[in-house]
Amino acid sequence: MPILHSVIHRIDKASSDQPATLHAASSELPGSDRMEALLAAFHEAYHGKTKSWGHFRAGEDGETQQAFVQALEDYLEARSDFVAFTRDIAGRLLPLIDAHLSLSGHLLFVDYRQGDTHYLSLALLHHREGFGIASSLEPIAAPQLNLARMSLAARLNLTQWRDGAASRHYLSWVHDRGGRKLAEEMAELMGATEGIDATGETRTLLKAFSDYVEQEDLPEEESREKTEALIDYANDQARRGEPITLEELSELLDEQQPKAFYEHIRNADYGLSPEIPPDKRTLRQFRRFTGRAGGVSISFDSHLLGSSIEYDETQDRLIIKQVPKQLKEQLKQRQG
């Protein structure tokens, strides 16, 4: 993950009723293994966050949008250097940080490549008290970066944006449930608009998969294997900050019929995008309930509970509203 440029500015805020002040760095950071390690740790924390995904608004319909994008273009076209660019953006972020946050922190900016893709990431990093061991073997206070508390951060796929790709999600920014207003103002500052609902799209993808498994009437073992393959692939993409590609997923699910799941999605018109930013929270909720006792074997996807399947705890009953087609035919034959 070669780092092309990196810089860290400091934001000081003594208390919630004191204005924040910017202490801007005068030069870039030298390349180092520690900086590479910090970027890797940032990635791991960032990809686990709930995010909005989108793109810059078309046209020049706002002063804020013009300022952010213009500053970015000036840097990329070498009309300004990285330090000047990041100081400009840090100055624009300062009122937003002052209005919504009460802690000091450091603004990290990194321009880097990951494979063939060019990225720009920024994040406000907070600290927490920790401990270390001195050379005298005594415990000492050692402040540490608290990457889990990342309330303001964004990542831009410069390659997709600069190539003029039709992607609606080359830009992402943190959107925690407790910081909705902060996320909205961050998007406004960047001139960004949401282009895809990652949570909704992930949920729809899982629904399409469940429909596919039911339609194909797959054996329980094969259904479980495909479920695990889907979740493993989606989680891996989430860890790398990459989207789920429907065609790639379809090939992974069935090597003998690599287009089967993809065609199922298209034929049923689920309205899914070809590429979907995975939502980790939604993926964590997707699993299969399985049970076997007294000659009865039951297995179903967890999201069906409460819709086509209900559990009556007081009566100890499982109510299935949509009986699988193959089972229905067997029951009819039995009754006949």
TrEMBL record:
This is Nucleoid-associated protein YejK. It is found in: Cytoplasm, Nucleoid. GO terms for cellular component: bacterial nucleoid. One of its GO terms (molecular function) is double-stranded DNA binding. Signal peptide: none annotated. Belongs to the YejK family. NCBIfam families: PRK00378.1 (NF001557). Pfam families: NA37. It comes from the Bacteria. The keyword Cytoplasm applies.
